[in-house]
Backbone:
């Protein structure tokens, strides 16, 4: 049985990936220090799969703690690294925390990889590295633009650390650049658990529809797009999770063609904010209260993925629709307590 470490495995994408790994017979170790999630996610993973992953509450940004933890797992076949702080706005307020946490944990894990170069390594990156791309859809060889936030910068620097580390130490890695992961597992046993007021569009929509928040504010309606609102590539979190299995198995089977391969994870379809609202109302029958508000600083006008490389090289493509994502997100929201946190 192959053994895989999922860091941040109690988080949004990490928990959905742990479910897909367990369903395929992998032994799963989850490392998560609960900085942005709750331990009950383990119960949700078990409820779906009938298996409970081993969970280590470890701060991977602490070199000694990370080293001691990994010393107990010299036989890992793969590491899927999700653990990171990921709130764009918070990263502007607390850049040192973001650089320490996101880059420190990555470097500590890569020390293990340098000593165990056969271990597959999948890095959670982001379409944020492209900034406002010059061409749409965005291809993997599009230029990386100066980051708009310390969070985005940690993803850009993270990819550079992978490349420099692979060159010096002979390990390999795959970086997956997520577009906008949304939705929840159709069982409604796991999903997105934003702590505090959601910064992202879809969890704000579901909390507003559940009466936990006021009406949705749509940030800007004067962009050069079909209806004046920003365009994003919203991809179901289960599709994103499955891509990690494809990427890891590509590495375990030694099929990589360069030390660090990069793939976009998107649907290839852009949707405006107003189209997302319409999809939510169509998929759930719920009427959403919303109004236009001023633009949000740092927002790019439009971003959606060129999906050819992931399809041709990974053999993966997104299967779920925007409406399915909305229905699954709403079913998950309805399973949560009705008191705002
Ligand atoms: C989407 C659109 C907003 C909230 C960020 C990170 C990215 C990834 C996903 C971590 C934008 C609009 C939003 C609201 C709104 N995070 N919006 N009202 O900014 O594309 O991506 O989150 O990996 O790295 O950059 O996602 O969901 O915040 O915004 O109008 O209350 O919805 O202006 O156009 P974003 P988002």
Residues:
């Amino acid at each position: 049985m192959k053994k895989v470490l999922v860091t941040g495995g109690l988080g949004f994408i990490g928990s959905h990936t742990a479910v897909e790994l367990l369903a395929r017979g992998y032994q799963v170790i989850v490392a998560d220090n609960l900085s942005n999630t709750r331990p009950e996610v383990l119960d949700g993973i078990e409820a779906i799969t009938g298996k409970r992953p081993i969970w280590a509450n470890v701060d991977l940004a602490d070199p000694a703690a990370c080293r001691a933890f990994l010393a107990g797992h010299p036989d890992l076949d793969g590491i899927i690294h999700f653990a990171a702080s990921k709130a764009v706005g918070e990263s502007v307020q607390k850049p040192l925390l973001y650089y320490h946490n996101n880059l420190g944990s990555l470097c500590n894990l890569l020390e293990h990889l340098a000593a165990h170069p056969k271990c597959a390594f999948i890095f959670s990156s982001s379409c944020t590295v492209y900034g406002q791309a010059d061409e749409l859809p965005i291809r993997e060889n599009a230029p990386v633009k100066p980051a708009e936030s310390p969070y985005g910068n940690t993803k850009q620097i993270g990819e550079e650390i992978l490349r420099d580390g692979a060159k010096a130490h002979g390990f390999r890695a795959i970086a997956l650049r997520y577009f906008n992961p949304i939705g929840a597992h159709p069982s409604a046993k796991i999903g997105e658990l934003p702590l505090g007021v959601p910064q992202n569009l879809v969890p704000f929509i579901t909390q507003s529809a559940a009466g936990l928040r006021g009406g949705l504010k749509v940030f800007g309606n004067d962009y050069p797009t079909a209806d004046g609102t920003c365009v994003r590539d919203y991809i179901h979190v289960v599709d994103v999770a499955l891509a990690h299995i494809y990427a890891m198995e590509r590495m375990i089977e030694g099929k990589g063609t360069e030390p660090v391969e990069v793939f976009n994870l998107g649907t290839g379809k852009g949707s405006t904010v107003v189209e997302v609202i319409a999809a939510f109302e169509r998929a759930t029958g719920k009427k959403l209260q919303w109004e236009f508000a001023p633009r949000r600083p740092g927002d790019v006008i439009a971003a959606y993925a060129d999906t050819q490389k992931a399809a041709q090289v990974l053999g993966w493509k997104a299967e779920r629709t925007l409406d399915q994502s909305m229905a699954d997100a709403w079913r998950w929201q309805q399973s949560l307590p009705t008191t705002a946190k």
Q: What stands out?
A: DSSP finds eleven helices and 13 strands in the chain. Residues 86, 88, 126, 128, 178, 180, 199-201, 204, 216-219, 230, 232, 273, 296, 299 surround WQD (CB under 6 Å). Residues 34 and 57 are 7 Å apart (CA to CA). The longest helix spans residues 95-115.
